Structures are given as structure tokens and as C-alpha cells.
Amino acid sequence: MSNPSVSARIVLQRQRRRRLEAGHPWVYQTEVERIEGDPTPGDLVDIVNHQGVFLARGYINPRSQIVARVLTYDAGEVIDRAFFTRRIAAAWAHRGRFLPATGACRAVYGEADFLPGLIVDKYGDVLVVQILALGMEVRKDDILAALMEVFRPRGILLRNDVPVRSLEGLPLETTVWAGEVPPEVVIEENGLQFIVDVQAGHKTGYFFDQRDNRAAIRPLMTGWGAEHGRTPQDGDPFWDGAEVLDAFCHTGAFAVHALAYGARRVIAVDISEPALAVGRRNAELNGVADRVQWVAANAFDYLRELERAGRRFDVVILDPPAFAKSRHALEGAIRGYKEINLRGMKLTRDGGYLVTSSCSFHMRPDLFRETILDAAVDAHKVLRLVHWSGAGKDHPEIEGVPEGHYLKFAIYEVRSRR
Q: Where, by residue number, does the polypeptide cross the bilayer (predicted)?
């Protein structure tokens, strides 16, 4: 069955990389030989190679450097309300297979769920949606109907307040799209509870991508009593727990996990007072508030202060925001990542652990590891890698789409060279 709404097509250049055939869902302006027809921005177009062979169907935005985004590789598939219902239901079924016990996760992850430009985070019976591209914006009604059919939520919030929309010529807005949306929700992750500010929190309110990585720190949180000369007879129920520094702690997800897993004490540092306020409430909610110190400070400055004071920790956790949001920012980002990892290593006691991550796409995995190694050389440390991973199972990755491989997460044992 042909799609009656497709009246134009993009003809790709002969001398191009075969990115589309390798699974990449974007077509760049530089790959286009010509556009046949007169499509309106947001219209559906067929994408063909230089010989006219059909490759994919997607939506077009001639004003963007990404001139088209792929919705289907099936020439007979109609892009209508039923299409969005099928795709969203398939995305949710994927989560049900790999995350069967969770009611809170990333339910639709844009290109990786074959719905480019659409993000849906599920917080129990509340959905938070981001529409990042013009082609999805013009199909909002079909998307809304599909979300209501698949999830039957209490409410849906549109968090279209992300700067990338401006590149698509779209306005920034936050609005209740359907039903009722409370200012906050409480979710469960790894058996713990967290308060999420869905209406004003960063991005959609919570970072689901680190779920599995937060669980990965459990083995680091106990087994330190002898190191510190403590015994059960001391009367401290957490005598064997780790002393932990959590820098860039945001709303305390790593800190609360560390404490729940047996850490004796955590210092949690972030520059955002509102984020720390939520962190305090999360600690109280999970019954660990008496073992955490919240510090409002620039993490770079605070790490230097701790180093000057001669402090040492069994575990140092570094979970900074993206330092490189563009290729032009990469050089400065490398300096930033090297700086915090160098300080983190110096603050880690010999035989302790550095937990470090980067969510900057432009900081490729090999470059991130190289930067950490450079920091280790300068800090006179030897690192033993004990864990390496990326984003969680609700953030699948399509091979051939390097932009989807953004999160790097590592746990290193830190030993001194002198």
C-alpha cells in the first residue's frame, strides 16, 4: 500500500557514505543530490539513492542541517495514527522484556525506537514527553492519541523546553498535554524511592540512563572496616561501610544508592541548591539522611579544597553534566574531564575506587579512557578497570548511529605508583 501523503523525494548523492544503509536514521544536507517535488517542512518524503532505488521514508525539514529523519524502511508502510500506536507499543513491549519490574523508565527513546525526535519518559501513571523535531511536531495529534491508547496515563506533560527545538524552528514551551500532572512524582529504582520534579527538574526530571550503573556500585560500599581499624565491637552498625565522595550529585541518586548499599558516610556535592533540596528529601524518604552531608559548591573548587585538606575517600563518584555539547567545546571538555578525574584519583585512598562517567557524545569512549589515563599519569596512579558500561536497557543503541552511544561509565581501582 502506498502512502498518499508522500509527494516528494530526496535523491542522495552517488559519492556518499552508506550511513543510511548501516542503520543511521538521519540524512544531512551535504548528502543530498536534489529534492524532487516541493515539500513543506515536516512533510513525508521518500529517500532514494542516486539510481532511484527506495531506501527509506521519513519527514523533511529543509531548514535543518538534518534535512530528513527516517521513520520506516518499508515502502508500503503508511505513516498515520496506527503507525505511531504500533511503534510506541513495540517500544513499551521492549521495556517489558528487559525491565519487567519497573513502572518508571524511558519508554520511547527517539531514533533508537525508530521514532526520531520523540522522547517519552514514564513516571508511573504520568508521562513526560519531548518533541524535538518539526516532523514529529506536525504529527502531535497522532502521537498524543497513540500515547493515550498504549499507556492510558493519568496525565501527560510536554517538556518542550530544550534548546534543540530552536534549531528546528520550534518554540520552547512546557505545558500539560493531557489529564492531570502533579508537580512531583515518586518512583522506584533498584528497590529505592526517589522524588522527581517532572515540571521543573532538569530535562524530564530524572536520569534513567544510569539505573544499572547505580546498582553496579553495590560491591564497593562494604568491606572497609579493617582498612580503617574499625570492628563490630565499636557499636557502629556501619563500621564496615565505605567513606564516599559523590561529586555532581544532582538530586542524590548515586548518594542514596551508596548509603542503601552500606556506605558509612557520604559527602554529596552539587552547585544547585534546588537539586540538593530534593536530594535531602530523597535521603529522608529512604531512611539514610543521618549519614550524608550535602554541600552546595562548585565541584571543581570543592575537589581542590578537599585535596588541600588531605582528605581521602574509599570511593569517589564523578557524574558530571555534559562538558561538550558541541564539537567546538571538545577541547575544553577534555581539560575538564582530566581535571576532575585527576582530583578524584588523588582523593581516592590507595586501593579505593574511582567511579566516573561522561554523558558527552563528542567525548568518544576511547578518548574518555585516554583522558582518564592521562590524569592517572599526572596523579602518579595505576588504574585497574573493574567495570565498563553505557546507558541502561531502556536506552537501546542502534549500530551505525554513533550519536546514540553517548554515556560512558567506568569503575577503576586506584593504586599509587609511589
A: none
The structure's pTM equals 0.93
Domains of the chain: 9-72 (2.30.130.10), 81-182 (3.30.750.80), 207-416 (3.40.50.150)
Q: Is the dihedral of CA 208, 209, 211, 214 positive or negative?
A: negative
| Per-position pLDDT tens, the chain of length 418 | 345 568 899 999 999 989 999 999 999 999 999 999 999 999 999 999 999 999 999 999 998 889 999 999 999 999 999 999 999 999 999 999 999 888 999 999 999 999 999 999 999 999 999 999 999 999 999 999 999 999 999 999 999 999 889 888 899 999 999 999 999 999 999 999 999 999 888 888 899 999 999 999 999 999 999 999 999 988 899 999 999 999 999 999 999 999 999 999 999 999 999 999 999 999 999 999 999 999 999 999 999 999 999 999 999 999 998 876 677 788 888 999 999 999 999 999 999 999 999 998 888 999 999 999 999 999 999 999 999 999 999 999 999 888 888 999 999 999 998 7
- C-alpha 297/C-alpha 179 separation (Å) is 38
Report angle CA 85, 203, 115 to the nearest 5 degrees: 25
* Annotation says 359 is catalytic: yes
Q: CA 90 to CA 100: how far, in whole Å? A: 14
Which position among 79, 187, 359, 383 bears the catalytic label? 359
Contact status, residue 179 vs residue 156, Cβ threshold 8 Å? yes
